[in-house]
Amino acid sequence: MDHFLYRDGVLHAEDIPLPDLSAQTGTPFYVYSAATLTRHFRLFDEALEGMEHLVCYAVKANSNLAVLRLLGGLGAGADVVSGGEYRKARAAGIPGERIVFSGVGKTREEMRLALGEGIRQFNVESEPEMEALNAVALSMGTRAPVALRINPDVDAKTHAKISTGKSENKFGIPISRAGSTYAAAAALPGLEVVGIDMHIGSQLTDLAPFEQAYTKLAALTRTLRGDGHRIVRLDLGGGLGIPYERSNSAPPLPVEYGHMVRRVLGDTGCEILIEPGRLIAGNAGVLVARVIYVKHGEDRDFLILDAAMNDLIRPAMYDAHHDIVPVVEPEPGGDSVTYDVVGPVCETGDTFARQRRLKPLKEGDLVAFRSAGAYGAVMASEYNSRPLVPEVLVSGDHSAVIRARPSFEEMLNRDTIPEWL
Ligand SMILES: *Cc1c(COP(=O)(O)O)cnc(C)c1O
């Protein structure tokens, strides 16, 4: 459920009509619903009720400071994958003790930053990283809390570009080597082993791969404890999917995920961390765009929008589907027409949808891409020298621009022409 609903035929973000926001901000822009973000965070928090747990929001899904401030204020921790994300989480007021640091390529500088300011745990993904973290911690006279990210070799049955838990993926330590790697970690004086971490992929629409992975995790917990390791925390990663197409059957709910976690891992007595990103932010945002032209091609009609692949890259990158809806509801009845929905960028890949059935649209009409709150604005670029797409947050009848569109002057000033040219 989200808070983008039609009232009197006009799509609203909570209590604000999208045409009003468009008039203030100009298109294209992202708009997020505080009520939806709050609701989704609480669904996860409640799903794990009764188990010691922390929901560490995956910052990479939507890292706007206002979004982080809102979630942090509700008690969320953060899962970060770079020094930049760590700084953003801290700047938004999330304390270091609630931040976990993931990623295959943490640099020594990033380790130093997080160790200096506080960190709940590093999710370590390889032996060389383990050695580096040990050295950094010792040089700072401290010990780094670590979980090793174990690659369980399960098929998440999601898009290949966001599947991370198969043995051929770059992520984690192969489960077959877990025993020896934990032994090596325990021998390093700069590390304090606290748990085990897994993250098998994103946009999973079925609980079965999670259950397979967590069953292996439960067994590994017993084995490692048998070897004398202190395993008190299990980080289960993120990955629960969202319904991008309203017409499709819905993926499992957080509460069902929570039941499964309790059934498979409840008797380990471990604290449970989860790292949801997409499910918290995805349906909490839409991208609003305007029709520039309707172009009648030789064998198809193109709806040319003022949003492009640089603003929302998911269709080009993952062949992702986003529902596209008119901001002003058309009169009931009347035939649908078929469009290729495209942006102005000079690439054929700048196509949001092929042969999409929509009610007829005309120049100047507003449309909204649903489910665009996660992996939307964070992946935007200024390709084709298009200004970075702005972001707006709505709560009830309040709205605020939480990232302004840069002016062309600001964009020009970022580049420097050397004096010798
Ligand atoms: C991307 C990522 C997540 C979040 O995944 P979602 O599918 O957005 O829930 C969590 N943990 C790690 C380590 C990730 O890389």
TrEMBL record:
Orn/DAP/Arg decarboxylase 2 C-terminal domain mapped to chain residues: 29-373
GO molecular function, one term: pyridoxal phosphate binding
Annotated ranges, domain Orn/DAP/Arg decarboxylase 2 N-terminal: 36-281
Residues carrying N6-(pyridoxal phosphate)lysine: K60
Enzyme Commission code: 4.1.1.20
Keywords, sorted A to Z: Amino-acid biosynthesis, Decarboxylase, Lyase, Lysine biosynthesis, Pyridoxal phosphate
Binding locations of pyridoxal 5'-phosphate: G239, E275, P276, G277, R278, Y375
Residues annotated to bind substrate: R278, R314, Y318, E347, Y375
Keyword Amino-acid biosynthesis in annotation: yes
Active site: C346 (proton donor)
Pathways involved: Amino-acid biosynthesis; L-lysine biosynthesis via DAP pathway; L-lysine from DL-2,6-diaminopimelate: step 1/1
Cofactor(s) named in the record: pyridoxal 5'-phosphate
Catalytic reactions of this protein: meso-2,6-diaminopimelate + H(+) = L-lysine + CO2
One example of a Gene Ontology biological process annotation: lysine biosynthetic process via diaminopimelate
Enzyme class (EC, first level): lyase
Assembly mode: Homodimer.
Biological role: Specifically catalyzes the decarboxylation of meso-diaminopimelate (meso-DAP) to L-lysine.
Family of this protein: Belongs to the Orn/Lys/Arg decarboxylase class-II family. LysA subfamily.
Name by which UniProt lists this protein: Diaminopimelate decarboxylase
Organism: Rhodovulum imhoffii
Gene giving rise to this polypeptide: lysA
